[in-house]
Amino acid sequence: MIQRRIFREEHEMWRETVRRFVEKEIVPLHAQWEEEGIVPRELWLKAGEAGLLCCTVPEEYGGLGLDYLFDVVVFEELWRVGASGPGFLIHTDLVATYILSFGTEAQKRHWLPKMVRGEAIGSLGMTEPHAGSDLKAVRTRAVRDPLAAPGDNDADFVINGQKVFISNGQLCDVLVLATKTDSEAGANGVTLFLVDTATPGFNRGKNLEKLGMKAQDTSELFFEDMHVPASAMLGAEGQGFKHMMTKLSQERLAQAIRSATVTEVMIEWTVDYTAERRAFNQTIGDFQNTQFVLADLKARSVMARVFTDRCIELFMAGELDSVDAAMAKMVTSELHCETADKCLQLFGGWGYMWEYPICRAYADARIVKIAGGSVEIMKTIISREMFKGKLSRTRES
To answer: Where is the Acyl-CoA oxidase/dehydrogenase middle domain (predicted)?
Structure first.
Protein backbone atom coordinates (compact mmCIF):
# COMPACT_ATOMS: atom_id res chain seq x y z
CA MET A 1 0.00 0.00 0.00
CA ILE A 2 1.31 3.46 -0.91
CA GLN A 3 2.40 5.42 2.14
CA ARG A 4 1.97 9.17 2.45
CA ARG A 5 5.33 10.95 2.29
CA ILE A 6 4.47 14.61 2.76
CA PHE A 7 4.49 14.67 6.57
CA ARG A 8 7.62 14.80 8.72
CA GLU A 9 8.06 13.60 12.30
CA GLU A 10 7.02 16.96 13.74
CA HIS A 11 3.77 16.83 11.78
CA GLU A 12 2.94 13.39 13.15
CA MET A 13 3.72 14.54 16.69
CA TRP A 14 1.38 17.48 16.08
CA ARG A 15 -1.26 15.06 14.79
CA GLU A 16 -1.23 13.21 18.11
CA THR A 17 -1.71 16.51 19.96
CA VAL A 18 -4.59 17.52 17.72
CA ARG A 19 -6.18 14.08 17.96
CA ARG A 20 -6.16 14.23 21.76
CA PHE A 21 -7.79 17.67 21.67
CA VAL A 22 -10.47 16.52 19.23
CA GLU A 23 -11.26 13.38 21.21
CA LYS A 24 -11.51 15.30 24.48
CA GLU A 25 -13.08 18.62 23.52
CA ILE A 26 -15.15 17.89 20.41
CA VAL A 27 -16.21 14.26 19.99
CA PRO A 28 -18.22 13.96 23.26
CA LEU A 29 -20.21 17.13 22.54
CA HIS A 30 -20.61 17.18 18.78
CA ALA A 31 -24.01 15.45 18.75
CA GLN A 32 -25.32 18.09 21.13
CA TRP A 33 -23.96 20.85 18.92
CA GLU A 34 -25.71 19.28 15.93
CA GLU A 35 -29.00 19.62 17.78
CA GLU A 36 -28.22 23.20 18.76
CA GLY A 37 -26.96 24.16 15.29
CA ILE A 38 -23.82 25.85 16.59
CA VAL A 39 -20.63 25.23 18.53
CA PRO A 40 -19.89 27.36 21.61
CA ARG A 41 -17.39 30.21 21.51
CA GLU A 42 -15.63 28.45 24.37
CA LEU A 43 -14.42 25.81 21.92
CA TRP A 44 -12.74 28.47 19.79
CA LEU A 45 -10.92 29.81 22.84
CA LYS A 46 -9.77 26.33 23.80
CA ALA A 47 -8.62 25.64 20.25
CA GLY A 48 -6.74 28.92 20.21
CA GLU A 49 -5.05 28.13 23.50
CA ALA A 50 -4.03 24.72 22.14
CA GLY A 51 -2.58 26.30 18.99
CA LEU A 52 -5.04 24.74 16.54
CA LEU A 53 -6.04 28.00 14.86
CA CYS A 54 -4.07 29.75 12.12
CA CYS A 55 -0.90 27.67 12.48
CA THR A 56 0.80 29.44 9.58
CA VAL A 57 0.32 33.00 10.90
CA PRO A 58 3.79 34.48 11.57
CA GLU A 59 4.98 34.91 15.12
CA GLU A 60 4.97 38.71 14.77
CA TYR A 61 1.16 38.51 14.52
CA GLY A 62 0.74 36.06 17.39
CA GLY A 63 0.91 32.82 15.43
CA LEU A 64 3.31 29.91 15.41
CA GLY A 65 4.73 30.59 11.94
CA LEU A 66 4.48 26.91 10.94
CA ASP A 67 4.06 25.42 7.48
CA TYR A 68 0.77 24.62 5.78
CA LEU A 69 0.92 20.94 6.72
CA PHE A 70 0.22 21.81 10.35
CA ASP A 71 -3.11 23.32 9.28
CA VAL A 72 -3.75 20.26 7.09
CA VAL A 73 -3.30 18.00 10.11
CA VAL A 74 -5.91 19.98 12.06
CA PHE A 75 -8.43 19.77 9.23
CA GLU A 76 -7.86 16.04 8.68
CA GLU A 77 -8.26 15.17 12.34
CA LEU A 78 -11.57 17.04 12.51
CA TRP A 79 -12.91 15.34 9.40
CA ARG A 80 -11.77 11.88 10.49
CA VAL A 81 -14.25 11.97 13.38
CA GLY A 82 -17.01 13.69 11.40
CA ALA A 83 -16.58 16.96 13.31
CA SER A 84 -18.17 19.20 10.71
CA GLY A 85 -19.29 21.79 13.27
CA PRO A 86 -16.16 23.79 14.11
CA GLY A 87 -15.65 26.20 11.21
CA PHE A 88 -11.90 26.29 11.68
CA LEU A 89 -11.13 25.91 7.98
CA ILE A 90 -12.95 29.10 6.93
CA HIS A 91 -11.32 30.98 9.80
CA THR A 92 -7.79 29.64 9.32
CA ASP A 93 -7.37 28.73 5.69
CA LEU A 94 -9.33 31.57 4.14
CA VAL A 95 -10.00 34.60 6.34
CA ALA A 96 -6.55 34.69 7.95
CA THR A 97 -4.99 34.08 4.54
CA TYR A 98 -6.87 37.00 2.99
CA ILE A 99 -5.72 39.29 5.78
CA LEU A 100 -2.11 38.11 5.51
CA SER A 101 -2.11 38.50 1.73
CA PHE A 102 -3.97 41.76 1.25
CA GLY A 103 -4.29 43.44 4.65
CA THR A 104 -2.52 46.54 5.81
CA GLU A 105 -0.08 46.31 8.67
CA ALA A 106 -2.70 47.83 10.96
CA GLN A 107 -5.33 45.28 9.88
CA LYS A 108 -2.94 42.39 10.45
CA ARG A 109 -1.89 43.57 13.90
CA HIS A 110 -5.48 44.24 14.96
CA TRP A 111 -7.14 41.01 13.79
CA LEU A 112 -4.62 38.19 13.43
CA PRO A 113 -3.56 37.84 17.10
CA LYS A 114 -7.23 37.71 18.10
CA MET A 115 -7.94 35.08 15.45
CA VAL A 116 -4.99 32.96 16.57
CA ARG A 117 -6.32 33.04 20.14
CA GLY A 118 -9.88 32.28 19.08
CA GLU A 119 -11.09 35.60 20.47
CA ALA A 120 -12.20 36.82 17.04
CA ILE A 121 -13.89 34.37 14.67
CA GLY A 122 -13.54 34.93 10.95
CA SER A 123 -15.96 34.41 8.08
CA LEU A 124 -16.22 35.04 4.33
CA GLY A 125 -19.08 37.16 3.07
CA MET A 126 -19.21 36.39 -0.64
CA THR A 127 -22.20 34.25 -1.66
CA GLU A 128 -25.47 36.08 -2.32
CA PRO A 129 -28.97 34.95 -3.28
CA HIS A 130 -28.18 35.90 -6.87
CA ALA A 131 -24.43 35.21 -6.91
CA GLY A 132 -22.97 31.85 -5.94
CA SER A 133 -20.08 30.64 -8.10
CA ASP A 134 -20.36 33.83 -10.22
CA LEU A 135 -18.61 36.12 -7.74
CA LYS A 136 -18.37 39.10 -10.08
CA ALA A 137 -22.18 39.31 -10.01
CA VAL A 138 -22.42 40.34 -6.35
CA ARG A 139 -24.97 43.09 -5.68
CA THR A 140 -23.99 44.24 -2.19
CA ARG A 141 -23.11 47.91 -2.76
CA ALA A 142 -20.42 50.01 -1.14
CA VAL A 143 -20.53 53.72 -2.00
CA ARG A 144 -18.71 56.71 -0.63
CA ASP A 145 -20.61 58.57 2.05
CA PRO A 146 -22.77 61.05 0.09
CA LEU A 147 -22.22 63.62 2.85
CA ALA A 148 -18.46 63.54 2.42
CA ALA A 149 -16.59 66.20 0.46
CA PRO A 150 -16.11 65.33 -3.24
CA GLY A 151 -12.80 63.59 -3.84
CA ASP A 152 -12.28 62.74 -0.16
CA ASN A 153 -10.45 59.42 -0.41
CA ASP A 154 -10.61 58.98 3.35
CA ALA A 155 -14.40 59.17 3.46
CA ASP A 156 -16.41 56.28 4.85
CA PHE A 157 -18.11 53.76 2.63
CA VAL A 158 -21.79 53.00 3.13
CA ILE A 159 -22.68 49.37 2.52
CA ASN A 160 -26.09 47.90 1.73
CA GLY A 161 -26.90 44.36 0.69
CA GLN A 162 -27.31 40.75 1.68
CA LYS A 163 -25.25 37.56 1.90
CA VAL A 164 -26.44 33.98 2.30
CA PHE A 165 -25.04 30.54 3.19
CA ILE A 166 -22.31 32.16 5.30
CA SER A 167 -20.39 29.66 7.42
CA ASN A 168 -19.57 30.98 10.92
CA GLY A 169 -22.22 33.61 10.25
CA GLN A 170 -23.76 33.50 13.72
CA LEU A 171 -20.42 33.66 15.50
CA CYS A 172 -18.16 35.78 13.29
CA ASP A 173 -16.47 38.90 14.62
CA VAL A 174 -14.59 39.77 11.43
CA LEU A 175 -15.89 39.34 7.89
CA VAL A 176 -14.12 39.46 4.55
CA LEU A 177 -16.93 41.10 2.61
CA ALA A 178 -17.23 41.22 -1.18
CA THR A 179 -19.00 44.34 -2.48
CA LYS A 180 -19.57 46.26 -5.67
CA THR A 181 -18.04 49.73 -5.59
CA ASP A 182 -18.69 50.24 -9.31
CA SER A 183 -21.77 48.47 -10.63
CA GLU A 184 -20.85 49.25 -14.24
CA ALA A 185 -17.33 47.79 -14.17
CA GLY A 186 -18.14 44.09 -13.90
CA ALA A 187 -15.32 42.15 -12.24
CA ASN A 188 -13.29 45.34 -11.98
CA GLY A 189 -15.97 46.88 -9.80
CA VAL A 190 -15.61 44.35 -6.95
CA THR A 191 -13.94 45.53 -3.74
CA LEU A 192 -13.27 43.65 -0.51
CA PHE A 193 -13.72 45.08 2.98
CA LEU A 194 -12.63 43.76 6.35
CA VAL A 195 -15.72 44.33 8.47
CA ASP A 196 -15.97 44.38 12.24
CA THR A 197 -19.37 42.78 12.85
CA ALA A 198 -19.96 45.07 15.84
CA THR A 199 -20.45 47.87 13.30
CA PRO A 200 -23.96 49.41 13.36
CA GLY A 201 -25.92 48.36 10.30
CA PHE A 202 -24.62 44.80 10.35
CA ASN A 203 -27.37 42.29 11.11
CA ARG A 204 -27.40 38.52 11.31
CA GLY A 205 -30.32 36.59 9.92
CA LYS A 206 -31.49 33.26 11.25
CA ASN A 207 -29.23 30.26 11.59
CA LEU A 208 -30.15 28.30 8.46
CA GLU A 209 -31.36 24.71 8.73
CA LYS A 210 -29.31 22.53 6.40
CA LEU A 211 -29.27 18.98 5.05
CA GLY A 212 -25.93 18.28 6.73
CA MET A 213 -23.09 19.90 8.67
CA LYS A 214 -25.73 20.67 11.25
CA ALA A 215 -23.38 21.80 14.01
CA GLN A 216 -21.80 24.50 11.85
CA ASP A 217 -23.69 27.78 12.03
CA THR A 218 -24.66 29.04 8.57
CA SER A 219 -26.45 32.33 8.17
CA GLU A 220 -27.92 35.08 6.13
CA LEU A 221 -26.21 38.42 6.73
CA PHE A 222 -27.70 41.86 6.10
CA PHE A 223 -26.08 45.27 5.70
CA GLU A 224 -28.25 48.35 6.11
CA ASP A 225 -26.50 51.71 5.74
CA MET A 226 -23.45 50.22 7.40
CA HIS A 227 -20.67 52.81 7.56
CA VAL A 228 -17.13 51.46 7.39
CA PRO A 229 -13.97 53.56 7.23
CA ALA A 230 -11.88 53.61 4.08
CA SER A 231 -9.17 51.96 6.17
CA ALA A 232 -11.38 48.85 6.32
CA MET A 233 -10.82 48.20 2.61
CA LEU A 234 -8.95 44.93 2.09
CA GLY A 235 -6.56 45.38 -0.79
CA ALA A 236 -7.13 47.94 -3.52
CA GLU A 237 -10.45 49.35 -4.69
CA GLY A 238 -11.77 47.45 -7.70
CA GLN A 239 -9.30 44.59 -7.17
CA GLY A 240 -11.53 42.37 -5.05
CA PHE A 241 -12.39 39.90 -7.81
CA LYS A 242 -8.71 39.44 -8.66
CA HIS A 243 -7.90 38.96 -4.99
CA MET A 244 -10.61 36.31 -4.67
CA MET A 245 -9.38 34.48 -7.77
CA THR A 246 -5.90 34.14 -6.27
CA LYS A 247 -7.34 32.28 -3.27
CA LEU A 248 -9.72 29.92 -5.04
CA SER A 249 -7.08 27.27 -5.68
CA GLN A 250 -6.29 27.15 -1.97
CA GLU A 251 -9.98 26.90 -1.10
CA ARG A 252 -10.48 24.08 -3.60
CA LEU A 253 -7.43 22.26 -2.35
CA ALA A 254 -8.90 22.36 1.17
CA GLN A 255 -12.11 20.84 -0.17
CA ALA A 256 -10.10 18.09 -1.86
CA ILE A 257 -8.23 17.35 1.37
CA ARG A 258 -11.54 17.07 3.17
CA SER A 259 -13.07 14.76 0.58
CA ALA A 260 -9.99 12.53 0.36
CA THR A 261 -9.94 12.18 4.15
CA VAL A 262 -13.64 11.49 4.65
CA THR A 263 -13.69 9.03 1.77
CA GLU A 264 -10.95 6.97 3.43
CA VAL A 265 -12.74 7.04 6.77
CA MET A 266 -16.08 5.94 5.35
CA ILE A 267 -14.42 2.98 3.67
CA GLU A 268 -12.75 2.01 6.96
CA TRP A 269 -16.08 2.19 8.81
CA THR A 270 -17.75 0.03 6.19
CA VAL A 271 -15.04 -2.63 6.14
CA ASP A 272 -15.29 -2.92 9.93
CA TYR A 273 -19.09 -3.08 9.88
CA THR A 274 -19.44 -5.58 7.03
CA ALA A 275 -16.78 -7.83 8.55
CA GLU A 276 -19.02 -8.25 11.62
CA ARG A 277 -22.61 -7.89 10.36
CA ARG A 278 -24.12 -11.25 9.38
CA ALA A 279 -26.83 -12.19 6.89
CA PHE A 280 -27.70 -15.52 5.28
CA ASN A 281 -25.24 -17.40 7.49
CA GLN A 282 -22.23 -15.29 6.53
CA THR A 283 -20.94 -11.79 7.05
CA ILE A 284 -21.89 -9.00 4.66
CA GLY A 285 -18.19 -8.80 3.87
CA ASP A 286 -18.21 -12.39 2.60
CA PHE A 287 -20.39 -11.43 -0.34
CA GLN A 288 -18.46 -10.80 -3.53
CA ASN A 289 -20.53 -7.69 -4.24
CA THR A 290 -19.38 -6.14 -0.96
CA GLN A 291 -15.76 -6.95 -1.70
CA PHE A 292 -15.93 -5.59 -5.24
CA VAL A 293 -17.68 -2.36 -4.24
CA LEU A 294 -15.18 -1.64 -1.48
CA ALA A 295 -12.18 -2.68 -3.59
CA ASP A 296 -13.23 -0.25 -6.30
CA LEU A 297 -13.74 2.58 -3.83
CA LYS A 298 -10.43 1.81 -2.10
CA ALA A 299 -8.45 1.87 -5.34
CA ARG A 300 -9.95 5.19 -6.40
CA SER A 301 -9.52 6.69 -2.93
CA VAL A 302 -5.81 5.90 -3.08
CA MET A 303 -5.57 7.58 -6.49
CA ALA A 304 -7.41 10.61 -5.14
CA ARG A 305 -5.16 10.78 -2.08
CA VAL A 306 -1.96 10.58 -4.13
CA PHE A 307 -3.06 13.40 -6.42
CA THR A 308 -4.33 15.50 -3.52
CA ASP A 309 -1.04 15.13 -1.66
CA ARG A 310 0.79 16.12 -4.83
CA CYS A 311 -1.38 19.22 -5.03
CA ILE A 312 -0.47 20.04 -1.42
CA GLU A 313 3.19 19.86 -2.40
CA LEU A 314 2.57 22.11 -5.41
CA PHE A 315 0.66 24.60 -3.26
CA MET A 316 3.46 24.77 -0.70
CA ALA A 317 5.94 25.40 -3.53
CA GLY A 318 3.71 28.16 -4.94
CA GLU A 319 3.04 26.11 -8.08
CA LEU A 320 -0.58 24.93 -7.73
CA ASP A 321 -2.56 26.27 -10.67
CA SER A 322 -6.30 26.66 -11.02
CA VAL A 323 -6.70 23.65 -13.33
CA ASP A 324 -4.95 21.19 -11.02
CA ALA A 325 -6.94 22.54 -8.07
CA ALA A 326 -10.17 22.18 -10.06
CA MET A 327 -9.33 18.59 -11.00
CA ALA A 328 -8.52 17.70 -7.40
CA LYS A 329 -11.71 19.30 -6.12
CA MET A 330 -13.92 17.75 -8.82
CA VAL A 331 -12.60 14.19 -8.60
CA THR A 332 -12.44 13.98 -4.83
CA SER A 333 -15.83 15.57 -4.23
CA GLU A 334 -17.58 13.27 -6.68
CA LEU A 335 -15.83 10.25 -5.17
CA HIS A 336 -16.76 11.50 -1.69
CA CYS A 337 -20.47 11.56 -2.54
CA GLU A 338 -20.37 8.22 -4.36
CA THR A 339 -18.58 6.58 -1.44
CA ALA A 340 -21.09 7.95 1.06
CA ASP A 341 -23.95 6.48 -0.98
CA LYS A 342 -22.40 3.06 -1.61
CA CYS A 343 -21.10 2.64 1.93
CA LEU A 344 -24.43 3.60 3.48
CA GLN A 345 -26.07 0.95 1.27
CA LEU A 346 -23.81 -1.70 2.77
CA PHE A 347 -24.92 -0.69 6.26
CA GLY A 348 -28.51 -1.41 5.25
CA GLY A 349 -31.23 0.08 7.44
CA TRP A 350 -28.75 0.96 10.17
CA GLY A 351 -27.00 3.27 7.73
CA TYR A 352 -30.13 5.40 7.68
CA MET A 353 -30.00 5.94 11.45
CA TRP A 354 -28.54 9.26 12.57
CA GLU A 355 -26.67 7.57 15.44
CA TYR A 356 -24.41 5.86 12.92
CA PRO A 357 -21.52 8.01 11.64
CA ILE A 358 -22.11 6.87 8.06
CA CYS A 359 -25.57 8.45 8.16
CA ARG A 360 -24.18 11.81 9.28
CA ALA A 361 -21.35 11.52 6.78
CA TYR A 362 -23.88 10.94 4.00
CA ALA A 363 -25.78 14.10 4.95
CA ASP A 364 -22.57 16.11 5.30
CA ALA A 365 -21.20 14.89 1.98
CA ARG A 366 -23.57 16.55 -0.46
CA ILE A 367 -22.22 20.07 0.03
CA VAL A 368 -18.77 19.15 -1.28
CA LYS A 369 -19.99 19.20 -4.89
CA ILE A 370 -21.15 22.80 -4.34
CA ALA A 371 -18.80 24.47 -1.84
CA GLY A 372 -15.72 26.17 -3.23
CA GLY A 373 -17.26 26.23 -6.71
CA SER A 374 -19.64 23.63 -8.11
CA VAL A 375 -18.36 20.59 -9.99
CA GLU A 376 -19.83 22.13 -13.14
CA ILE A 377 -17.56 25.15 -12.67
CA MET A 378 -14.61 22.80 -12.14
CA LYS A 379 -15.40 21.04 -15.41
CA THR A 380 -15.62 24.40 -17.17
CA ILE A 381 -12.18 25.41 -15.87
CA ILE A 382 -10.64 22.11 -16.94
CA SER A 383 -12.24 21.99 -20.38
CA ARG A 384 -11.41 25.63 -21.06
CA GLU A 385 -7.74 24.82 -20.58
CA MET A 386 -8.05 21.70 -22.76
CA PHE A 387 -9.63 23.62 -25.64
CA LYS A 388 -7.62 26.82 -25.25
CA GLY A 389 -7.18 28.40 -28.68
CA LYS A 390 -8.99 25.56 -30.45
CA LEU A 391 -12.72 26.18 -30.22
CA SER A 392 -12.47 29.64 -31.77
CA ARG A 393 -10.61 28.24 -34.79
CA THR A 394 -13.21 25.49 -35.12
CA ARG A 395 -15.99 28.05 -35.16
CA GLU A 396 -14.20 30.21 -37.74
CA SER A 397 -13.79 27.22 -40.03
So the answer is: 124-226
